[in-house]
Write a structure and sequence with these properties.
By secondary structure, this protein is mainly β. It has 1 helix and 9 strands.
Length: about 150
């Protein structure tokens, strides 16, 4: 019985290590495409073979909050397809907000079904673009937010 439990635990630890090894983590900031903004929220993007998660940190954007008030939110994505040098991911569910609300100038206020696309620029730099329109097909992708992220 102990041998079986040890094998199960070993397999569980090995599978967790394999999942961690498949993820790549990128960080930087994003901005609105084609617009000037006071806010450029930071983003931490974890990419895997079949999913992604983007965590945003920035100003709350609420008029009743102090101008320096910050909050966080995150969005989960599932791999959609690869087209040329771009990898496309579709949002899973809705953005996850804290009690402080959404992050100003981030995709966390977008519609359900948003799309993320990423492209390697070098081994240490990644282009990330977010389309906040719902269920856009890759050929119709139009970036709402974009940034260059680094390892």
């Amino acid at each position: 019985m102990r041998v079986v439990m040890l094998i199960v635990l070993t397999l569980g630890i090995a599978s967790q290590a394999a999942v961690a090894a498949e993820l790549s983590t990128w960080s930087g900031s994003i901005g609105l495409v084609g617009e000037r903004s006071r806010s450029h929220p930071s983003v931490k993007l974890a990419l895997g073979a079949s999913n992604a998660r983007a965590d945003f940190n920035g100003f709350t954007g609420a008029a009743h909050d102090p101008p320096t008030a910050k909050t966080t939110c995150w969005i989960g994505y599932r791999f959609l397809e690869k087209r040329g040098s771009w990898q496309y991911y579709r949002e899973l569910g809705r953005p996850h907000l804290t009690a402080a609300g959404y992050v100003e100038d981030s995709p966390c206020l977008g519609a359900n079904g948003q799309t993320l696309r990423v492209r390697m620029l070098s081994s240490r730099e990644l282009s990330a673009q977010f389309n906040t329109d719902p269920f856009v097909m890759p050929e119709e992708f139009r970036a709402s937010y974009a940034g260059r992220l680094h390892r």
